[in-house]
Amino acid sequence: MVIHIQEWEDHKNIIIVNEKIDSSVQLIIYNDNQEEAFLYSLYVATISRRCGYADYLMTFAEKKAREMGWIRISLRVCNSSPRWLKDFCQLPTG
């Protein structure tokens, strides 16, 4: 895994790349929010999908976020988000 941290004026981007399976996850952490990181993107190459790599990447990203002091990772959806993403965010947890 390769981890890139980009520091901007009001936020940080944490980009985690797994070149072996052509996949990545990107988190955004705003300076005024000390508890929460936001999932910006999650990508797994078509050939590597349905193998558990997205789950693996998210678990790794959660671990890194906790190591850096953030308690949770959130995902925001809006009216223009794809239907499948809206449905995913409404799944019951537990």
Please sum up the structure shown.
The chain is of the alpha+beta class. It has helices at 53-67, 83-89; strands spanning 2-7, 11-18, 23-30, 36-44, 72-74.
Would you mind describing this structure in some detail?
- It is a single chain.
- The protein has a 5-stranded mixed sheet, covered by helices on one side.
- The chain has one domain: Aminopeptidase (3-Layer(aba) Sandwich), CATH 3.40.630.
- It has 94 residues and is α+β, with helices and mostly antiparallel strands.
- The radius of gyration is 14 Å and the shape is globular.
- The model has no long low-confidence stretch (mean pLDDT 82).
- It has helices at residues 53-67, 83-89, and strands at residues 2-7, 11-18, 23-30, 36-44, 72-74.
Q: CATH topology, which one?
A: Aminopeptidase
Tell me the CATH superfamily: Gcn5-related N-acetyltransferase (GNAT)
Total helical elements: 2
CATH class: Alpha Beta
SSE inventory with pairings:
Layout: E1 2-7, E2 11-18, E3 23-30, E4 36-44, H1 53-67, E5 72-74, H2 83-89
Relevant terms:
alpha+beta; 94 residues
